Automatic annotation (TrEMBL):
EC number from the UniProt entry: 2.1.1.80
Lineage of source species: Bacteria, Pseudomonadati, Pseudomonadota, Gammaproteobacteria, Lysobacterales
Keyword terms, alphabetized: Methyltransferase, S-adenosyl-L-methionine, Transferase
Gene3D superfamilies referenced in this protein's UniProt entry, alphabetically: Chemotaxis receptor methyltransferase CheR, N-terminal domain (1.10.155.10), Vaccinia Virus protein VP39 (3.40.50.150)
SUPFAM superfamilies the UniProt entry points to: Chemotaxis receptor methyltransferase CheR, N-terminal domain, S-adenosyl-L-methionine-dependent methyltransferases
Presence of keyword Transferase: yes
CheR-type methyltransferase domain span: 19-291
Name this protein carries in UniProt: Chemotaxis protein methyltransferase
Reactions mediated catalytically: L-glutamyl-[protein] + S-adenosyl-L-methionine = [protein]-L-glutamate 5-O-methyl ester + S-adenosyl-L-homocysteine
Length: 291
């Protein structure tokens, strides 16, 4: 532990643990290497404030012990660290125009093309957070499958790095006020209202759960998926990455999409100058080029 960190951590009893220079330098390098997130010096207070809660949960008195934990066993704490320093803001049907394009254009066309019984359809929610995005996708998909009237092997893969987010997504239980973006008809159809001790909560319908597979995945590490996807949603994720990391991620997405397949990004994200494999076709909707 460096001298600055040693001095700073003596203040823990007064104002809580303080993030020393050497510790912040280590965390910046660690987070960039393992998560692709570039932390500027201006993020120092934010990192300190958010990780103090993590230190308390682990029963640690200073950041030196936390850094030692990361050095000794990086994978065990990586998800919690990434969750702590990221801003996990999500909602049902966020950026609703994406779901409208999916419901009105893409899904009817795809399902018409997949005429043979047993044809597969796959959508990936990369960075699914607490589950609102994949369950929104599942509602749209379930409704499209009903209109289609054919048996299609349709699934949504939902992945995230945060253990807390994945646990919430797996649980699929949300405060009723979180359903603000869901129409009254869809609330009645796709959610079960809690009673007694679950009053004020809503649980996603089992039919939606059947469509969604939730798994942990670090986008910077190896991906186990072998086949292609009909669409990938990676929204409000790459905003944390620097340019080289974005370029690498877009190249990897391109390998999992057939020509003409869409990639959906968040409202403040863009591929401009970062990839020549995609073309813009709508508001933060990109399509893999066909030639």
């Amino acid at each position: 532990m460096n001298a600055v960190a040693s001095h700073d951590n003596t203040m823990a009893g007064v104002a809580g643990p303080v993030l020393g220079d050497g510790e912040f330098r280590f965390l910046r390098e660690f987070v960039y290497e393992h998560c692709g997130i570039a932390l500027s010096e201006q993020k120092r207070q934010l990192v300190q404030g958010r990780l103090v809660r993590r230190l308390r949960a682990l029963g640690m008195k200073g950041f030196d012990a936390y850094c030692e934990l990361l050095r000794a066993d990086p994978e065990s704490e990586l998800g919690e660290l990434a969750s702590a320093i990221s801003t996990n803001v999500t909602s049902f049907f966020r950026e609703v125009h994406h779901f409208e394009v999916l419901a009105d254009d893409l899904l009817p066309r795809w399902l018409d093309q997949k005429r043979r019984e047993g044809d597969r359809l796959r959508i990936w929610s990369a960075g699914c957070s607490s589950g609102e995005e994949p369950y929104s996708l599942a509602m749209v998909l379930a409704e499209a499958l009903e209109r289609c009237g054919r048996s299609i092997d349709a699934k949504i893969l939902a992945t995230d790095l945060s253990p807390a987010a994945l646990a919430a997504a797996q649980k699929g239980v949300y405060p009723v006020e979180r359903l603000e973006g869901v129409s009254a008809e869809r609330r009645r159809r796709w959610f079960l209202r809690g009673e007694g001790e679950y009053a004020g909560l809503a649980c996603v319908h089992p039919k939606l759960r059947e469509l969604v597979t939730i798994l942990p995945l670090n986008l910077l590490h190896e991906w186990p998926m072998q086949g292609t996807f009909d669409a990938i949603f990676c929204r409000n994720v790459v905003i944390y990455f620097d340019q080289p990391t974005k370029q690498k991620l877009f190249r990897r997405f391109a390998r999992l999409l057939p020509p003409g397949a869409p990639l959906f990004l968040g409202h403040s994200e863009s591929m401009h100058g970062l990839s020549d494999e995609f073309e813009l076709i709508g508001r933060t909707i990109y399509r893999k080029k066909t030639a």
